[in-house]
Amino acid sequence: MGWWCWALMLVLVPWHTRNLSLWLWVLMSFLPEVNPCLLCFGPPIQRARLCHEITGAFVDELRHKKCIEAIVEASKPLASVTVASGQREELREIVMDAMYSLEERWKKSLNKSLQEAVNRIWKKLSELEKVPACVPPCGFQPAARVFQCATCRFVDCQFALDCPVQDLWTYTDETIVLRCTVPFRIPPGVPVTWMFAPNLRTQDMALFKELKGNPEKPFSLTIEEPAPGTVACRLGEQTKPIIRKFFYLNVSEGSVEEEKGLQTLFSTVLKSVDETPTHIPYLGLALGFGSMALVLLLVASWQCLSVRQMRRRRGHQGTQEDSRPLDSA
User: Fold this and answer.
1) E strands, the chain, where?
2) Model's pTM, two decimal places?
3) Is 193 helix (H, G, I), strand (E, B) or coil?
4) Potential cystine with 241: which of 46, 236, 267, 278 (Cβ 3.0-4.6 Å)?
């Protein structure tokens, strides 16, 4: 393709400023290595014109290509930029202002002007509000939605809308309160819908029936006589939900008062067990000393008896030996 073709495109493309596909085609034709972040804002023709003014060369000449390469190299760090979805317009203005300033200051030094432009972009980006982090494990989180400069796309938290089912244990005569709260920011005025699927542990929305909530406290649901089944709450419209939470009610036939009585009895038993070991060491020590003293006493008595018996035997034998000589004489 000759230089006149590129010159023709330089003239024609500005008349189609809303045709992004045409810009992309031109960009991929003679700027195949341009950083995607620059592709998000402003027409590629602006960079081509900038290099044409700097070098005085057309797009198919080496000087023009060197200029484009310098712009690409300087803009590479911008590929890591992510801003909140509502800050996309601010990011566009920051990038475009840097490009306009580059057109005005390129005469002193291209590399120096590029570095100053990039530094200006980073400085203005640092003044933007930080994007909230994604909070697992579930829900669409609008406040954490970001715009990626590298892909020119909006990216959401990669979580499912449905939260895991939470198990709750209760009794038929107990009053419970369920809350449809989330750990992330949600838009004001979001509608809340409560639903119930009796005798089922499920997340199939087709099996739920809508419940009547409290308009004054829409984020909470009070249940006076719980029944087995799954309670669900939805934040947002049915067609555009933000999150769905599920609570499975494990309902027992007993009474809350009976449970409290058993807990009191159990606590009393545990308390008595905890107090018993404090007396056991002293009692055991006393029994140990007593048993040892008894054993020593028995051993001493046995030894005394043994010594006496031995003395008696020796005395008796001595008498017999003394009598023999007398008899013989």
Assistant:
1) 82-84, 146-148, 153-155, 162-171, 176-179, 192-198, 209-210, 220-223, 229-236, 241-252
2) 0.60
3) strand
4) 236
